[in-house]
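BUG-367 | component: ligand-complex export | severity: low

The export step for F0G jobs runs without errors, but we want the raw record kept on the ticket for reference. Input record follows.
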Amino acid sequence: MFRQPLHDRGVISRYRTYLPVSEATPVVSLNEGSTPLIHCAKLSAKVGRGCEVYLKYEGLNPTGSFKDRGMTMAISKAAEAGKRAVICASTGNTSAAAAAYATRAGMDCVVLLPAGKISAGKLAQAYVYGAKVVAIEGNFDDALDLVRKIGEREEFAVVNSINPHRIEGQKTAAFEIVEELGDAPDIHILPVGNAGNITAYWKGYQEYAALGKSRRQPRMAGFQAAGSAPIFYNQVVEHPETVATAIRIGNPASWEQARAAIRESGGAIDIVSDAEIMEAQAWLAGQEGIFVEPGSAASVAGLLKCLDCGREPCASCPVRGVAEGSTIVLTVTGHGLKDIEAPLKYRSFAPRQSANQVEAVLQALGY
Ligand code: F0G
């Protein structure tokens, strides 16, 4: 009998009452969740008016992204259903999480990825965790279409966010935020790709409000990359492009649910350019010490863009009419180390050259 570590608190054991699990569900967990909610003094100062800004740092999950919250549920339920294999399409993070959790459950994992559009770190994760990797000539949306078809075969469980168990697991991030703040924030900002996460957060906030655990519900503000912004433009993007490959999606599966979350919460959907995304990534790492991948930096880029816009508050602005002393939470969805190619391509980071001598090093440093 192994000893159960004291900190063994994955999202299913922590939130069992609020999730569709039973004694019959074998819990497949890597102790995901319980990620830090980090107060950002410099970002708060930028917003001003006594507002406080916090980052929900989902990059600190076991495979480096928020996907682990949904995957513990999807894989546990697949195991309960007796499935031997799972399949997903991915821009890289879902596949990393699926591969890790499937391996833990002793299942095969098949991942369909858009060829040439996955960061090396994420691709390495899929391989190292033991997935069967297929590169598709096409984008994420094409890969998801294939998964829907192949997933009809009896042996597979589909573990994309079209699987409702994924949304159930991911809603726990909203629970954690409410518990930590003592209430829901006034505004919640997050990047939007396939739109599962904004759907999940809104579900979580609504459920906790209905249970009396929070008094308010936040305005949900989603940001898409300008070249991959179907919800913002209200039309499918056939050839989505962005440096933020995680959210390079032209036809999101949870489009309608995202719209509902934005409408019901009085929120907004807006876009950020690749340049704004990369600047926000650099700003956050350089000012707050938090390194997130480009897809995650879209939320920070969105807040910074709205602060700097200088126009009359526009309909899509998440900080419009923000009341004094508001609480703003941004989800940063994946760790910066997931995709090191993007920042290295965007900026040159050349080391100072020096001889192997104390004096030479000090001179190279300018001391
Ligand atoms: N941020 C990161 C780092 C992501 O990997 C994703 C989605 C999102 C944001 C957007 O979340 O799809 O729920 O709106 N990545 C998926 C994947 C598509 O395959 O890893 P969403």
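Assignee comment: Attached the raw record above. The CA atoms of residues 47 and 307 lie 7 Å apart.
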